[in-house]
Write a structure and sequence with these properties.
The chain is 37% helix and 28% strand. It has 14 helices and 25 strands. It binds one RNA strand of 77 nucleotides through α4, α10 and α11.
RNA sequence: CGGGGUGUAGCGCAGUCUGGCAGCGCACUUGCUUUGGGAGCAAGGGGUCGUGAGUUCAAAUCUCACCGCCCCGACCA
């Protein structure tokens, strides 16, 4: 197999696909539009899952599991929801060798199944809030799939909550978005813009959709997570009422929210370079790898015993591996671990043993640092922290440098075409202008940012009054 | 569904125009030498040339039909 990776500048999306395949994160499945996540890629997902799960539980959410198959009539109960999802649903029509009386939809999301259960579980305000999450796979029949970013089947996490009041649901939706932002920025080292979606970009059946939007290295935006305030739409459709504190009756207020294996795609497209993947230390299953280097068999035993004591020093606090495979040369191993994105490499050769030193090599900068044996266990955590921080800062700088304030449509088109990135521009608020801009430039409103300064201006397209700027970009 | 490609060893490809022994690189196996940035040499294994039909003494190559995959669009809470 050809081991080298082509430079990413030439064709970013081809480079991305090649990298995913070469780093053995995923592979094309024998079913069109579907992807196999290989152990390497699954490790990343496990780490994402582990950390998010902890954060959900800390804020009172519990995991449950709901069925894969949903009666077709459930989807049709909520009109907007049906319009949003019907075209991309896969449907089972046969079972037990017979045509089914009612077709079963493979879940594209579980709102309908979950709300049909919530009807049984919720009768009083004492049953609220109900805070449930599930980790599962879903199917959306996409016409044009891309590994990790959009596949017909994918793994995700979907939270579904029920509340007494609009305010409480709104607070929950925003709280979850905050968790997503914190996780994506602090663990994945991916800086994002937070905001709400325009009406046309909203989730089918939601009052509000909140989103975090990241910027990939080719200048295209990626929606990294969404959180929806569903109002009472699903409660009405599934007739979920509860007795209020004052003895009255009301429909339940709902939220739903999710992130998927798409985050792995975001991680790669944000940090990877021409040597391969770069994994932020906080998400790395294996943050440190030790590579022994030797020539003679006499050196071999000296170097290996040195790496053993190094290993014992570090293994208390870090997952460390000694790559002592005899069949590969050190230079081969360097490249291989760089392709896998391991944050820190420790090289140990005869010269280092002699001087009681080691060489630490950072994945993010390639910098080689000589450190005395005694300092290694102090230097490793320091460097890992620095790498984590540096990855975030580098990506943040990139995102900020590619966020352009633009005040007329001609410049808007030019920036979209030539530079890419986010465009911060005035918009009158009409869906017609939004649609026109999309069809002319392929740029969509990614979000109306929180903490947006009020500013009078003219809509970039129609020139009508506008009270704030919104973020546009071409997106994946 | 429209436009453009492509299908030959596990992967990447040449060979097709002009029909005549099934090739190359990487990977794999064995041996020796190597080992501080993807090692060298030698030997070796691996093929329904996408499928079906046709033309021909002879088809990866020419003709017809079908199928798959990739890229660009349309779709994508």
């Amino acid at each position: 197999m050809e081991n080298r990776i082509t430079p990413k500048e030439e064709n970013f999306s081809q480079w991305y696909i090649d990298l995913v395949l070469k780093a053995k994160l995923a592979d094309y499945a024998p079913v069109k539009g579907c992807m196999v996540i290989r152990p390497n890629g699954y490790l990343l997902w496990e780490n994402i899952q582990k950390n998010l799960d902890r954060m959900f539980k800390e804020s009172g959410h519990l995991n449950a599991y709901f069925p894969l198959l949903i009666p077709e009539s459930f989807i049709q109960k909520e009109t907007e929801h049906m319009e949003g999802f019907s075209p991309e649903c896969a449907v089972v029509t046969y079972g037990g060798g017979k045509k089914l009386k009612e077709p079963l939809v493979i879940r594209p999301t579980s709102e309908t199944m979950i709300w049909s259960m919530y009807r049984r579980w919720i009768t009083s305000y004492r049953d609220l809030p109900l805070l449930i999450n599930q980790w599962c796979n879903i199917v959306r029949w996409e016409l044009r799939p891309r590994l990790f970013l959009r596949t017909s089947e994918f793994l995700w996490q979907e939270g579904h909550t029920a509340h007494e009041t609009y305010e409480e649901a709104e607070k929950e939706a925003l709280k979850i978005l905050g968790i997503y932002r914190k996780f994506v920025e602090e663990y994945m080292a991916i800086p994002v813009y937070e905001g709400r979606k325009s009406e046309s970009e909203r989730f089918a059946g939601a009052l509000q959709t909140y989103t975090i939007e990241a910027l990939m290295q080719d200048g295209r935006a990626l929606q990294a997570g969404t959180s929806h305030n569903l109002g009472q739409n699903f409660a009405r459709a599934f007739n979920v009422k509860f007795t209020t504190r004052d003895g009255g009756e009301d429909y339940v207020w709902a939220t739903s929210w999710g992130v998927s294996t798409r985050l792995i795609g975001a991680l790669i497209m944000t940090h990877a370079d021409n040597k391969g993947i770069v994994i932020p230390p906080k998400l790395a299953s294996l943050p440190v790898v030790i590579i022994p280097i030797y020539y003679s068999s006499e050196e071999r035993s000296r170097v290996l015993s040195y790496t053993q004591s190094l290993y014992s020093n570090l293994k208390e606090n870090f997952n460390v591996k000694i790559d002592d495979r005899e069949e590969y040369r050190p230079s081969y191993k360097f490249n291989e671990w760089e392709l896998q994105g391991i944050p820190l490499r420790i090289e140990v050769g005869p010269k280092d043993v002699e001087k009681k030193e080691v060489i630490l090599v950072r994945r993010d900068t390639g910098e080689k640092i000589s450190v005395s044996f005694n300092e290694v266990s102090l230097q490793v955590p320091t460097l890992l922290n620095e790498i984590q921080k540096n990855l975030f800062e580098k990506a943040k700088k990139f995102k900020e440098e590619r966020t352009f304030k633009v005040d007329n449509f001609e410049d808007f088109q030019k920036v979209v075409e030539d530079k890419g990135g986010f465009i911060y521009a005035h918009w009158c608020g009409s869906p017609e202008c939004e649609a026109k801009i999309k069809s002319l430039t392929k740029a969509t409103i990614r979000c109306i940012p929180f903490r947006n300064e009020k500013e009078e201006g003219k809509c970039i397209y129609c020139g009508e009054e506008s009270s704030q700027r919104v973020l546009f970009a071409r997106a994946y």
